[in-house]
Amino acid sequence: MDIKDIIKPENLVYSKSKLFTDKALSYCPGCGHGTAHKLVLQTIEEMGIESETIGVAPVGCSVLAYEFMDIDIQQASHGRAPAVATAIKRLMPEKFVFTYQGDGDLAAIGTAETIHACNRGENIVIIFINNGIYGMTGGQMAPTTIAKMKTSTSPYGRDTAIMGNPLKITELVAQLPGVYYCTRQAVHTAAAVRKAKKAIRQAFENQKLKKGLSFVEIVSNCNSGWKMTPVDSNIWMENNMFPFYPLGDIKVPTEK
Amino acid sequence: MAKIKGAIVVEIEKCKGCGVCEVACPTQVIKLHTDVNGKGYHFAYMENPDACIGCANCAMVCPDSVISVYKMKVEA
Amino acid sequence: MKELRLMKGNEAIAEAFIRAGADGYFGYPITPQSEVLEYLMAQKPYETTGMVVLQAESEVAAINMVYGGAGCGKKVVTSSSSPGISLKAEGISYMAGAELPCLVVNVVRGGPGLGTIQPSQGDYFQSTKGGGHGDYKLIVLAPASVQEMADFAKLGFELAFKYRTPVMIQSDGVIGQMMEKVELFEQMPRWTNEEIKKISPWATVGKTPDRERNIITSLDLDPARQERHVYKLGAKYKEIEENEVRFEKIQCDDAEYIFVAYGSSARICQKSIEIARAKGIKVGLLRPITLFPFPKKVLNKLADQVKGMLTVEMSLGQMIEDVQLAVNGKVKVEHYGRVGGMIPSPDEIVAALEQKIIGG
Fold first, then answer.
1. Domain check: are C187 and C252 in the same one?
2. Which chain A residue's Cα is nearest to B51?
3. Is A215 contained in some domain?
4. Rounded CA gap, A19 and A11, in Å?
5. Same domain, C57 and C168
6. Which of A21, A72, A111, A120 to mutate to probe the C interface, most C CBs <10 Å?
7. Cα maximum dimension of chain B
8. Do C213 and A112 touch (CB under 8 A)?
9. Of C57, C69, C205, the CB nearest to A72
10. Are residues C114 and C186 in the same domain?
11. Do chains C and A touch (3 or more CB pairs under 8 A)?
12. 3-class DSSP assignment, residue C105
């Protein structure tokens, strides 16, 4: 049986989302951002809401998300994406609005905007990529950097006595009444991708049903910042990040 | 008995050779090529195409969405 | 229908936002402008015109909400006072960079720092020379009455959308807090989605198949493209300088001396003119209505006519630099002002004119 007989349009079972632009992603090889982008775009495509969706990109590695996503996008100033999204959704409640933010953006400089958008129960989706580091600026310590983890500003490892503790912002926002759905996922294996995809779909469906804020954290790698190969960084993530940031739902709707 | 046969197509010039697909493949189909693409990356390819079952695990984890997956039933 | 009312400046401008067909107001309490948010919350325009009113968690959040709303082609506005405007400066710079129309109202109080809650004009540099980072300008309107507080809300939106730029209404604690008669303009309808698509085809309202995606950003990492963008902004500011200079001349025709003052200082100067003229001093007033673009040409022309100019500002002297540049050494220009929330009296101003300009 020749491969050419298999590679036919009618046999295609998985390909790039149509909502990607032709531009090659600017992320480092193996970075989970690309996979997370894909899941968001697949969700929008599957729900058929591309003409009703407005994304908000942060400052950080994904500042250029608008280069890759073929939808209307606003690029927000550092940390302020939830405020930007709040206004977009309030002014156009019939549209779908999501933010895509990293851990420095969402959990350090933008903590206030994150918490208050969550607490008000803004009917938006927040996609939160947590790789425990500031990737864009060259691998500095982030609010989410785990204890003892080495970064360029914690070169001997994060000493929590001096540098403070890593922030579990997802557990924190899960406490807020405005947050309807809160989950932590990953995208480094096929099984994880399937679950993360389901979670993102759930989040967008919640918005459709006007349920309030859905918060999807994706624990991801930063092989460049962590100074590992992509494959090693995924293994390191499983062994070191997941024990502190366990995967799974943190808050699920209780109503029937 | 029907058997599932799969195949992948890698967009070679956009592949960054991260190797995440290689690890994700349950039937050890994919390897990184000894050659490099225009950007100097060892791109992914089917080293053992006969073993491909079209499960799409590789494409699911590919951060750059450069893998397309094809699958068909073949009568044994 | 036009309507006559007795209102505070802060209330009048809030009412004018509703009547101008604003889609959203995002604010945060700070004295002396909290009545804006209070008035809007009491009026509940979300039940009448559909205008969104939201008390944000901070000035920073509020200006970024304005960014989000403006990016959707909506008429959006925020108001604050000096320390709050400092917090908004980053967002204003982003909006200038991303070419987003919006209104920002500054009811100026005394500074620096937390300063005082009393009126001041110490934010002239901040609003006309930057405040935020980068090469940008704001159109700055300076109301001198409750009437202008209302009228400039409408004018501000018009200019903001005409030039795709943030517009600052620079008021102060006097104009914000005082009550006056105001004739309110008629209620304008909010723009429909179709109108927004026509007026602001760049707005992020969802990418339809008939167009490319819209992106709102102030970022371009390609220096050649970024340079073109900043040049484009520069050309826009030139155009604004050509077309949008606004000022009021009071008793300038026979004047030998000129007060240059805006906002509440200009009102006080009108009394000073009376006092001075009673003494035989022929003095007039040039009141800049736009602080940017600054009425340079008219001042330069007046410099050929008069013997000296006194800028009256509630600051250590900020606008005086623009007046000096405008007259380019033709006549003597001095400054008189009070700071820290103190307001100059008409007599003080006349005395300053006599000492610094006539006798000096």
1. no
2. A3
3. yes
4. 21
5. yes
6. A72
7. 44
8. no
9. C205
10. yes
11. yes
12. strand
